[in-house]
UniProtKB/TrEMBL annotation:
UniProt keyword annotations, A-Z: GTP-binding, Nucleotide-binding, Nucleotidyltransferase, Transferase
Protein name: Phosphoenolpyruvate guanylyltransferase
Binding-site positions, phosphoenolpyruvate: 139, 155, 158
GO biological process: F420-0 metabolic process
EC number of this enzyme: 2.7.7.105
Function: Guanylyltransferase that catalyzes the activation of phosphoenolpyruvate (PEP) as enolpyruvoyl-2-diphospho-5'-guanosine, via the condensation of PEP with GTP. It is involved in the biosynthesis of coenzyme F420, a hydride carrier cofactor.
Protein's UniProt keywords contain Transferase: yes
The UniProt record lists the keyword NAD: no
MF terms (GO), sorted A to Z: GTP binding; phospholactate guanylyltransferase activity
Organism: Nonomuraea cypriaca
Pfam families linked: CofC
Similarity field: Belongs to the CofC family.
SUPFAM superfamilies xref list: Nucleotide-diphospho-sugar transferases
Length: 211
């Protein structure tokens, strides 16, 4: 039987978000950050093993639209990314102690529910597991089985940190959209190739109207 998952999605304060895309997105930068998080949340909620999505943010301008999509929102204590994730995970365990708990980055605008389901099914085979990002440097997903300690090590070269922490690296075919985080203009081009979700596609159409 497949297991249920609570997914924690961290969204940083919008004034600081997507700084590496500031030049590319201009005055649309915060709308872009909310749209990318919106597509990530919507795809996660559409993934059958996902029982709930818990967004951790201290920014009301992100919390409102993401709650409207169906996410639960937990306030970020603003002590860094891994503290935000642990805060969300504690809420997940409180509401659903029998479910697995995962952290999913908020910058996956091409995320496909079926590909996320493949990754979650594989992750459920291990006490702790992770998905490396498209560049094999960072991490897009880290998760633990119910009852296992949740020890996210995101930030910088987090693929190596998760490996060192004993998490199983999930090297799976067919999960490109789970690995496709968007931090730079090159990342955005690659995500456009995969196919953006509707929120991000709308902002990109504002940025670069079809000629
Ligand atoms: N809640 C919360 N989320 C965070 C925090 N720091 C980073 N994040 C989130 O973690 C993910 C990766 O964040 P970063 O790559 O550091 O930031 P970014 O806004 O995506 O991009 P840059 O500004 O270019 O670094 C994104 O989903 C962020 O929203 C934090 O302190 N709190
Ligand atoms: C924080 C991370 O991601 P990013 O590449 O978005 O900074 C990470 O991969 O651990």
């Amino acid at each position: 039987m497949s297991i249920g998952w609570s997914l924690v999605i961290p969204v940083k304060t919008l004034v600081a978000a997507k700084s590496r895309l500031a030049a590319a997105t201009g005055r649309h930068r915060t709308a872009f950050a909310v749209a990318v998080a919106g597509d990530t949340v919507a795809a996660a909620l559409a993934c059958p093993p996902v029982a709930r999505v818990i967004v951790v943010t201290s920014d009301p301008a992100a919390a409102g639209p993401l709650a409207a999509l169906g996410a639960d929102v937990v306030h970020d204590p603003d002590r860094g990314l891994n503290t935000a994730l642990r805060t969300g995970a504690a809420e997940a365990v409180r509401v659903a102690p029998g479910d697995a708990v995962g952290a999913l980055q908020a910058d996956l605008p091409a995320l496909r529910p079926a590909e996320l389901a493949v990754a979650l099914e594989a992750a459920g085979e291990f006490d702790q597991a992770f998905v490396p990002d498209a560049l094999d440097i960072g991490t897009t997903f880290y998760g633990v089985r119910a009852g296992m300690p949740f020890k996210p090590r995101f930030g910088g070269e987090s693929r190596a940190k998760h490996l060192a922490g004993g998490a199983k690296e999930l090297c799976l075919p067919g999960i490109e959209s789970v690995r496709r985080d968007v931090d730079t203009p090159d990342d955005l081009r690659a995500a456009i190739e995969l196919g953006l979700g509707r929120h991000t596609a709308a902002v990109v159409a504002e940025l670069w109207p079809p000629s």
